[in-house]
Amino acid sequence: MDQITLPGISDDDQRTLGRLLDQLNQKYERNRLRQAYYDMKHAVRLVGSVIPPQYWKLGIVLGWSGKAVDILARRCNLDGFVWPDGKLDDLGFREIWEGNNLGSEVSQGTVSSLIHATSFVVNTTGGEGEPEALIHFRDALNATGEWNARTRRLDNLLSVNARGDDDQVTALALYLDGRTIVADKDASGWTVDVQEHDWGVPAEPLPYKPRLSRPFGSSRISRAVMSYQDMAARSAIRLEAHSDIYAIPDLWMLGADESIFKNADGSQKASWQVVMGRIKGIPDDEDAAQPRADVKHIPASDPEPHLKALKQQAMFFSGETSIPLTSLGVSDMSNPTSAESYLASREDLIAEAEGATEDWGPYLRRTVVRALAMANGVKAEDVPAEWATIQPRWRPPMYLSRAAQADAGAKQLATVPWLAETEVGLELLGLEPQQIARALADRRRAQAQQRTTMLAAAAQAARQAPPAAEGTGGDAG
């Protein structure tokens, strides 16, 4: 990727752009490699010369790296956001959620985070015909930034918005403190637009497994994962070659000439005809030292060594990724039959999902609060303190049957009965958000109908009641 010089920007901004482009270039090939593993577009290297080259050209691949990402991502589901101190819909949250397709976008952003170690989420204000606040996710192939360990925020972010056929950048956005530089390239060169705002750097990272020395986290497709997948792919290729070459018994014919391998016209028979022929006649040659040919039979070799190697490599992969061996398709073990054994087999994976959502949560909370402020015309310094309690609500990563979840919820509600009248109580019973909303709406309608009926009954009773008797007066004295 070539360096880019933008007209009309300061030297400091140009240096920042250069640093971020260098940073993006340094990680680009490695990120593309991990993307190739996820998309099953990585071909394993030929090692040794035992297997004929044509078997390496079959394009045999394994989807284990994609499985490592997807099986964890499917346990990290964002159900929405909650605000104990108020109603989010009063702030226009529903419009932000629906207008940005936020449920699906978050899922895509977290998948990219697992693949590349991090992804990025950016806030912008909407234009004509767009939601008032926009939320966009960018993967690490097309975005990078500099992390400030003191403020625990991004100092800047570079987002590549478009590339040409030669993979060169043709559109970008550089997010700085209080400024956004938007640049587009056409036949005449670069055009630059600088936009000022009061939102600092309106972007957040979504790191997977961050640590002090790696604030942007580590990829789920680690070097060990790629290595084990390559080992297993080579075993699968050897197994495929074994099926064609070594699964057919060997026959050694002593004292025979080549005529038995030829057609009547003297041409050589095809290999499959030689191999598949089950009845063969070998003529005697009285002039030969050994008149009658001697056939030695060597049984076909067993593919079990290849299968054992593949299973062992699957065990390595399972240990590295916390994926149950049964999910990799090479285990003859049956699925756990009890709830306890099922949870035990997935304990590590559940812990991974809980840790991932805890790492992503604070950055998604900042993003949604910023979007709500943009949509409501609230400046950054005027965001109410009450909004600090807005939090993402993640679906539990531990799968429970409806019956088990309802039973556990009923026991909790029996201890605290008043919870049954709240939205939290309905969540404990295992109802989905749509079901909770419908149940509460039906309850409100029923209560309104009941109040209307009571008022009508009271009015009817008042009309049917006899008038009060008039009292008789008398003179005193």
Structural features, described:
With 477 residues, this protein is α+β, with helices and mostly antiparallel strands. It has 13 helices and 12 strands. It has helices at residues 11-38, 53-56, 64-73, 93-99, 102-116, 223-245, 271-276, 304-321, 339-345, 347-375, 402-415, 423-428, 433-464; strands at residues 78-82, 118-125, 133-139, 143-148, 153-163, 169-176, 179-186, 189-196, 203-207, 250-254, 294-298, 391-394. The strands form 4 sheets. The chain has a 5-stranded antiparallel beta sheet with strand order 4-5-6-7-8, covered by helices on one side. α6 packs antiparallel against α8 (304-321). It is flat, with a radius of gyration of 35 Å. Residues 473-477 have low confidence and may be disordered.
Q: Strand-residue fraction?
A: 15-25%
Helix content: 40-55%
Mean pLDDT: 84
Radius of gyration: 35 Å
The count of strands amounts to 12
Order of helices and strands: HHHEHHEEEEEEEEHEHEHHHEHHH
SSE map:
Elements: H1 11-38, H2 53-56, H3 64-73, E1 78-82, H4 93-99, H5 102-116, E2 118-125, E3 133-139, E4 143-148, E5 153-163, E6 169-176, E7 179-186, E8 189-196, E9 203-207, H6 223-245, E10 250-254, H7 271-276, E11 294-298, H8 304-321, H9 339-345, H10 347-375, E12 391-394, H11 402-415, H12 423-428, H13 433-464
